[in-house]
Design brief:
The protein is built from 8 helices and 7 strands, in the order H-H-E-E-H-E-E-E-H-E-E-H-H-H-H. It is elongated, with a radius of gyration of 42 Å. Helix content is about 50%, strand content about 10%. A hairpin with a 7-residue loop joins strand 1 and strand 2. By secondary structure, it is α+β, with helices and mostly antiparallel strands. Helix 1 crosses helix 5, helix 2 packs antiparallel against helix 3 and helix 3 packs across helix 5. The chain has a 5-stranded mixed beta sheet with strand order 1-2-5-6-7, covered by helices on one side. Strands 3-4 form a two-stranded antiparallel sheet.
Length: about 375
């Protein structure tokens, strides 16, 4: 992974004039270029910083501005650093872009945000005359309230900070890399012997590495997305095949139910007729039983099975069949009632309209409307 990033960084970081090999470093002359002419994209940021109160930190951000936290005294230096950075960026064929959140760098069209921050030194707070006077008024008011025995009207103490923070002139540039760029250098700051102005080339190398890292990360994300999509597709196909197999078994079980019922009825008739000719109501019952057995046999004949299977498309290996769908009616009244109930409930969910409780034929025998 690290080698891949380095290869991509070399590819991304090479300027248009470096040739096919891309091994020549960008000349240091960019950092030594005439910095008296502020880059047009930097002017607004510099002017906003310069308009801040002396000795106080100002923050610039938003549309058309670079993210900076610094004092007014550092406005010109910040402008110089940003100008050098943008010139080196443009020398490599890259650019800076912006949105409603502010301006950012775009090496090889990869958006990378950053912030320049001036460090501050913390010292114990020195009270001003106004703060001392406010504290005195508070203590006097509290003493008066104590003498009156009325603590409910005691004024709030004045807000006096514990520390003072003074700008130091030391600048730090931080690249916004996030967790995706762990291990890469994100901070560049003034040191004892070197300042940000002399770190432009190293910043360019870091930007090339960041851009390469973004591309590698995006490629990995896309690969994982495709793998997840393929896994989901396989899961859905396995579910579909499982449902189809279950429906085929369900259909077979219902036909076997008819076969067993017909065989049992025919065995019953044969046993009864072995006792002798059936007469009167027994004869009528036997005649009805024979017709019932014949209808069951007809129901599992090849022609009837063909019509059912074709209507269901049940033997099509590519068919999409819903788990709620009934493949045939059951001979068991309770099972049949439940099946019809679920079908009506599904139709209502899909198309709206009349509720299940309004279908009188779906209520169990003996149940009043609305009874469970």
């Amino acid at each position: 992974m690290a080698e891949r990033l380095k290869d991509k960084a070399r590819e991304v970081g090479s300027s248009p004039d470096q040739g096919a090999a891309g091994k020549e470093a960008v000349p240091q002359s960019h950092a030594a270029a005439d910095d008296q002419q502020v880059h047009p994209l930097v002017v607004r940021t510099r002017d906003k910083l310069a308009g801040a109160k002396a000795g106080e930190m100002a923050r610039t951000s938003g549309k058309g501005l670079f993210a900076v936290v610094a004092s007014a005294e550092q406005a010109d230096r910040v402008a110089r650093i940003l100008t050098l950075l943008l010139r080196a960026l443009e020398a490599r064929g890259w650019s800076a872009k912006g949105d409603d959140k502010g301006l950012f760098l775009a090496p090889d069209d990869e958006p990378i945000r950053f912030e320049i921050t001036e460090q501050s030194a913390r010292t114990p707070h020195k009270r001003t005359d106004a703060e001392t006077a406010a504290l005195k008024r508070y203590e006097e008011g509290r003493e008066r309230a104590y003498r009156r025995g009325s603590w409910s009207v005691t004024p709030d103490p004045p807000s006096i900070p514990e520390w003072d923070y003074e700008p130091t002139g030391q600048l730090v540039l931080t690249l916004d890399g996030g967790y995706r760029h762990s291990g890469m250098r994100r901070k560049f700051s003034d040191g004892k012997t070197q300042r940000l102005e002399g770190m432009v080339d190293r910043l360019m190398e870091a930007l090339a590495l960041y851009a390469a890292g973004e591309k590698v990360w995006r490629e990995r994300q896309e690969k994982e997305r495709l793998e997840r999509a393929e896994a989901e597709k396989r899961r859905k196909e396995a579910d579909r095949r499982q449902r189809l197999a279950s429906k085929r078994l369900e259909f077979l079980e219902l036909q076997l139910q008819r076969f067993r019922r017909a065989s049992e009825v025919e065995a019953f008739i044969a046993q009864a007729e072995a006792e002798g000719p059936a007469e009167d109501v027994v004869g009528d019952f036997m005649a009805w039983a024979k017709r019932y057995a014949a209808s069951l046999r007809e129901d599992i004949s090849q022609e009837t099975l063909r019509q059912k299977l074709q209507a269901l498309d049940l033997m099509n290996d590519e068919v999409e069949i819903d788990g709620w769908r009934a493949v045939d009616h059951s001979l068991d009244p309770e099972t049949e009632h439940r099946t019809r109930y679920l079908e009506a409930r599904y139709d209502r969910a899909r198309h709206g309209g009349i509720g299940v409780a309004d279908h009188g034929e779906l209520r169990r025998p003996g149940c009043r409307r609305g009874a469970r």
